[in-house]
Amino acid sequence: MTEFPRKAGEWTELSREIVYDNPWIEVQHSAILNPNGGEGIYGKVHFKNLAIGVLALTEEEEIFLVGQERFPFDGEYSWEIIEGGGPLEIDPLESAKRELKEETGLEAAHWEFMQEMHLSNSVSDERSLCFIAKDLVQKEAEPEDSEKLKIKKLPFQEALQMVLEGKIKDSISVAAILHYALLKKSN
């Protein structure tokens, strides 16, 4: 149980109320003192899973993208790298392997950690971990019941161009694709 007041760096949390809770998120409303000593309120979305991203690449530098409609954006279609949630108590690499297999049917012999990101740090504590998957073998996909996915394999440069033209908007995908492009350029 958290005791209040609670210091969080230069912030002081005076109290906290849980205003919404489901298996994936918890919305918290806190009375706070900001770093300058002013009283205020803060709303935070606490995520109960890690956001996992997988940049799956073939030997020919082709990338796999997953397409689907996204409910929060009124069903707007989104092309993304392989993504999903990973329970906090499970090794993130195991979650990445599961997501790759579920969404594409792919298994990878070589894995490399790429980056950690805070996805919306002004209102949430959601963290994302991204991995590169190589030496791919195609097996049977096992998508979740709620997912209606399209899979597309294209040259990495085309995916990079999609990012630069604003055709890929998902933040994890944009960051991972740009990160990999910079890694390629520096090697």
From TrEMBL:
GO CC list: cytosol
Cited CDD domains: NUDIX_ADPRase_Ndx2
Domain Nudix hydrolase: 47-176
UniProt key word Hydrolase: yes
Entries under Pfam families matching the protein: NUDIX
Catalysed reaction, written as an equation: GDP-alpha-D-mannose + H2O = alpha-D-mannose 1-phosphate + GMP + 2 H(+)
SUPFAM superfamilies associated with the record: Nudix
Requisite cofactors: Mg(2+)
Protein name as it appears in the record: GDP-mannose pyrophosphatase
